[in-house]
């Protein structure tokens, strides 16, 4: 291939995008370049975060996107049919659909039903573990208190306290733990 003839105008980008002038003082943010081996949604979120100041400029988002890619992903972008993608939404859809098999699926609320306090486990350890599992749940909301209580050992005094006091929010559980045991739970 004669690389001297390679021009941006020969790319898959529309003329409107290839003729885009970058804003004055525009500096391309530094990215962890996506190579096609990790979660594409995480890359799109990182790209969105780093380009947030330019979110109103869809052409710029489109034009700068290949600069966040490397390896297989970069190669994929330039193998797309000429002028096949007309806007940034189409770019992100095509990108995500191709690399979706790399997606690391987060857990749903049902996962928390498997989190149980072990016999002899301290309340502090159970709370820490439960909270670490909540962090893995996609779109987790405050309504996990019941699941937390279900996972407690029935013989744990805190179980009876929570049931008798009708606690329905996880933040209320954490507040009550601190009130009952200011130095930390030892149960």
Features:
elongated, 187 residues, disordered N terminus, 2 domains, mainly alpha
What's a concise summary of this model?
This protein has 187 residues and is mainly α.
What does this structure look like?
The chain is mostly helical and 187 residues long. Helices cover 43% and strands 0% of the residues. It has helices at 15-18, 40-50, 58-64, 71-79, 88-99, 123-134, 145-151, 157-164, 170-180. The model is unreliable at 1-9 (pLDDT under 50). It has two domains: 3-102, no CATH class; 109-180, no CATH class.
Number of domains: 2
Assess the beta-strand content as a share of residues.
Answer: under 5%
Treating each run of at least 4 consecutive H or I residues as one helix, how many helices? Answer: 9
Determine the mean pLDDT. Answer: 82
Low-confidence stretches: 1-9
Helix-strand sequence: HHHHHHHHH
Class based on secondary structure composition and strand pairing: mainly alpha
Annotation, overall tally of beta strands: 0
Helix content: 40-55%
